[in-house]
Fold these 2 entries.
Entry 1:
Amino acid sequence: MPSSPPGYAFRGPGLDRSELLRERPDDLRARWTAARVLVVDTDGNARFPEAAGGCGFCLGADLAGELPDAASFLGLGEEGAWFALPHESLPEPLPGRMDLRSAATEWPARDAAALAEARALLHWQQRNRFCGGCGHALALGKGGWCARCTQCGLEHYPRTDPAIIVAVTDGERLLLGRQATWPKGRWSVLAGFVEPGESLEQAVAREVMEEAGIPVLECQYAASQPWPFPAALMIGFQAQGLPLEPSVSDELEQARWFSADELDSAVATGEVKLSPVLSISRWLIDEWRAQARARREAAPAG
């Protein structure tokens, strides 16, 4: 189990999503004027007036006199309702811009989580305009959380793609891999999407074997992180693997075991660059390093 609370992005309490309000359009319209609105462009960036400084959101009253058809209800905060609005629906562009990764490090945690929610929801809406059953146009309802076919009546809901991410150890070393497209020196724990009809534990064993040729003996859930780039949920595990020499497929350029001392030294010299601190991958690595450090300190001298 984790030895400390997760310290990565989008982890803390978010908005109260208040699902029942999605079915009450009159209530949503009444909340619009005083609402905070996250305007998101097609690249997933928050857009706002220059005068907003670093806050990143707009007020409903400053954008439109009444709730726009394109607005989606995100939930309730202590200050009231929050909505998401596509930037392209505005008559004039907003000059301020903030990408989600930057917001995760610069904004309050709750606001960054709200932007992650808005980005993922609007991405789904933008790419699901026609029915997968009959091909006709979809109409948004339930505060933006349902797309109903205007022809056959089929309802479509936002999808989230589950992906496992796993810190594999052989008891003394941590297994890390790197992709050829990553920056020089970047290493991370292994990850991959869950396939249809597969349990999370099966996905852990399959991905580690596919990517590094290491059999997994057992695994344990550690933590999770929404990762709206564009619509993943990273489900973190700690796993025990056989101490075999890694054998990579075309998914990885390299994979290797690192002892705690080797990893600490490589990070200190810049030979190894770990994942950014906003990611669960970095948290899994740091958790393993902390546990390895604790074992060394607890070991009897001599």
Entry 2:
Amino acid sequence: MLDLSFETPKPKVIAGAKHDWELVIGMEVHAQVASKAKLFSGASTQFGAEPNANVAFVDAAMPGMLPVINEFCVEQAVRTGLGLKAQINLVSAFDRKNYFYPDLPQGYQISQLYHPIVGEGEVIVDMEPGIARRVRIERIHIEQDAGKSIHDMDPAMSFVDLNRTGVALMEIVSRPDIRGPEEAAAYVVKLRQILRYLGTCDGNMQNGNLRADVNVSVCRPGQYEKYQETQNFSHLGTRCEIKNMNSMRFIQMAIDYEARRQIGILEAGGKIDQETRLYDPDKNETRSMRSKEEAHDYRYFPCPDLLPLEIEQAWVDDIAASLPELPDEKKARFVKDFGLSEYDADVLTAETDNAAYFEKVVDACGDGKLAANWVINELFGRLKKEDHDITDSPVSPAQLAGIIGLIKKGDISGKIAKDLFEIVYTEGGDPADIVEARGMKQVTDTGAIEAAVDEIIAANPAQVEKAKENPKLAGWFVGQVMKATGGKANPKAVNEIVAKKLNG
């Protein structure tokens, strides 16, 4: 497989009143496992159900109820780890993370602190062709989600919906390798893309199925390099965590605001307190939520209701054998096999449905570059204009391949092809039949084209003299011939005959 080489982007530098500063960002992405049942119960994970409709006894912490691990959720976590080229730990264990919120009936969350199921991996974050950031994954652990407190239904009371309680989450923890707001958003986009390819999380950020906690700190230039050499975090600034971000745009805005807030404090001689903050998009500011707890504040201890989780290497190998082709590999193959640019390959592999559609078009027409041009520029452009995605396309891969095939055969010109595409998009039908029925076939008979050229030249002697003095004016005759033939004349043939007649 072709390896697409890349250079590392430069870190984001923010000029303070006294010094230049660099950003250091690490992320904890919470991805809801794509599963019909919860992590420790058989309750449904359906989104949008009536409040407290999807709650089993164990989710509601009824006395005597014991959790039972959902094997499929474990499989999804392993699949995710393999997709991120991470170490799979054959032995992992669950811990209780004790804290008290109204939407946490047990008074603790079952998570994995000391022995996560997935170890170190990596994500290659493409910033532009040839420029990418390698972000190291520290760990992935599985845990149960909490419920939801609702404060806007009554002026005097709050309500609790436990439907999300016990839903399986994967917490994907990165190293502090991200160096700017744009990189942070691109990292979440790439991670979401990989999860969707794997089928382990649908990536729906509006529903909260993918959300990020963003750790932001600032340091002086040169300090990050010392951290890389030593892996000593003391070279980096004190970090603050921005909780529950579910928008790429807000992630960037929150990081920029938080970095400048910290720079202002440091340059005024102050000290950054490690804390958890929330981002207010209406005011474009972060504000303190609580001081940052350490592990002992949560009183972690091994979950007494669950034995250590032991899995077999053969099972992991079976999961690995079933992995789909992932975005980086697919992109490299598109560049190698179809001669596409990295940019075009990026666009076509952004979503699995897009890539599958494109490959069906190529299989039918046999021309990767022409297929990419039509899929990206004509089809994606039209779908975006109407706020649709590829699954809503009224033009099938076979129909688009049919249009491209007619271009390659010389039956239609590029201009006619666009008119044909419009007809197929709005009315449907077989492209070849439409061309035949509506007389759209390109005129390739040089005799007919020559007759049209002679007629235009004979009717415009003054223009002929100007064109002989200035050859660039020959384009006027080409345009007139195309107009006279209803755009059906072969443009290449028209250009050649016009040039021959004017120079003869």
